[in-house]
């Protein structure tokens, strides 16, 4: 079942009533006024109403589910998400009509996997398993995880995967208000023990249609999608080598020059590639050269890291 940690949708303004004026701000855009409500804690929520356009935009995160956060946004929890907005005395929503008559603008497809490996080893494994270092870049993200994104100039083609330890992330200071809003935060957090979160950000309707395999981006179509977008993007980005190569393998000892370069680059293949590009002729195949470094890095990693297969945990 498809699960999301962020959802933004657009529907008709007639499906929202009783806006609490003490919470709502009035703005103008190109001479047209609109109402806006926004909060960051205990969960992110933005509501924008354009009366003249008859347009209602709602965006929220999975933390809206409180103690049921581990269930995430899905076809089973969507009504609970909208009900929470209503019970917080912000406004009244015609939930059934919104579900039937909304278009999804963006969403974060999310999967929490039980993983026996520490995040440090997962990061090493992933950095060594990128298929194309020209196309995909890797950097640290704020929550001590990894962010994998493609090198493009247009927003509509931008793709991003975020991988991090969800249990540790919930213990960060910025989550204190959210945790205090839960009835039993300890019980809720324990549901994320040993969980590694993988998020795939879909930031356009084109991406939503492509990776969710839906003809339209209606809320019902999106939530009922049986696609495996995280698995699909994983296969597009990652190539996991499952072969077991011991540290006594002669490849390590017959590649002392490459090994030295790997060490100097802190075993970061992106740094190796940058170094090679700076010192290699333009007509030389960098990709072919990188393959030898990639194989060498896989050879010298620990057995735990080399035998790791994240893909099997995603399935």
Compile the SSE list and pairings.
Layout: E1 4-11, E2 16-17, E3 25-29, E4 32-39, E5 45-50, E6 55-61, H1 78-87, E7 92-93, H2 95-100, E8 103-114, H3 119-127, E9 136-140, E10 146-150, E11 160-165, H4 166-170, H5 176-181, H6 185-190, E12 195-202, H7 205-212, H8 219-223, H9 229-237, H10 250-253, H11 256-264, H12 269-279, H13 286-300, H14 303-306, H15 310-314
Antiparallel strand pairs: 1-6, 1-8, 2-7, 3-4, 4-5, 5-6, 8-12, 9-10, 10-11, 11-12
Structural class: alpha+beta
> How does the major sheet shape up?
10 strands, antiparallel
Instruction: Compute the number of helices.
Output: 15
What sort of overall outline do the alpha carbons produce when their principal axes are compared?
elongated
**Rg over C-alpha atoms, rounded to the nearest angstrom:** 23 Å
Instruction: Give the spatial strand order of the biggest sheet.
Output: 3-4-5-6-1-8-12-11-10-9
Termini Cα gap: 12 Å
Which whole number gives the mean pLDDT? Answer: 88
Percent of residues in helices comes to 25-40%
Low-pLDDT residue spans: 242-254, 302-306
């Amino acid at each position: 079942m498809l699960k999301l940690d962020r959802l933004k949708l657009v529907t008709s303004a007639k499906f929202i009533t009783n806006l609490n004026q003490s919470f709502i701000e009035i703005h103008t855009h190109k001479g047209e006024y609109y109402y806006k409500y926004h909060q960051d804690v205990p969960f992110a929520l933005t509501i924008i109403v354009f009366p003249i356009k008859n347009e209602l935009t709602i965006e929220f995160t999975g933390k809206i589910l409180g103690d049921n956060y581990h269930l995430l946004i899905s076809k089973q929890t969507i009504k609970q998400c909208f009900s929470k907005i209503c019970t917080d005395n912000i406004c009244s929503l015609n939930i059934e009509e919104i579900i039937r008559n909304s278009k999804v603008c963006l969403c974060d497809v999310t999967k929490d996997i039980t993983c026996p490996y520490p995040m440090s080893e997962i990061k090493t494994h992933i950095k060594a398993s990128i298929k194309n270092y020209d196309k995909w870049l890797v950097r640290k993200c704020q929550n001590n995880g990894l962010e994998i994104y493609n090198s493009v100039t247009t927003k509509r083609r931008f793709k991003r995967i975020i991988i991090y330890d969800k249990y540790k992330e919930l213990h960060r200071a910025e989550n204190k208000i959210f945790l205090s809003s839960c009835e039993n935060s300890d019980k809720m957090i324990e549901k994320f023990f040993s969980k590694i979160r993988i998020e795939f950000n879909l930031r356009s309707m084109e991406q939503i249609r492509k990776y969710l395999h839906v003809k339209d981006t209606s809320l019902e179509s999106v939530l009922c999608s049986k696609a495996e977008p995280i698995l699909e993007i994983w296969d597009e980005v990652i190539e996991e080598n499952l072969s077991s190569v011991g540290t006594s393998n002669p490849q390590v000892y017959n590649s002392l020059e490459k090994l030295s370069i790997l060490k100097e680059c802190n075993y970061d293949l992106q740094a190796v590639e940058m170094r090679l590009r700076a010192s290699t002729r333009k007509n030389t195949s960098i990709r072919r050269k990188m393959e030898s470094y990639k194989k060498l890095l896989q050879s010298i990693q620990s057995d735990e890291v080399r035998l790791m297969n994240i893909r099997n945990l995603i399935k």
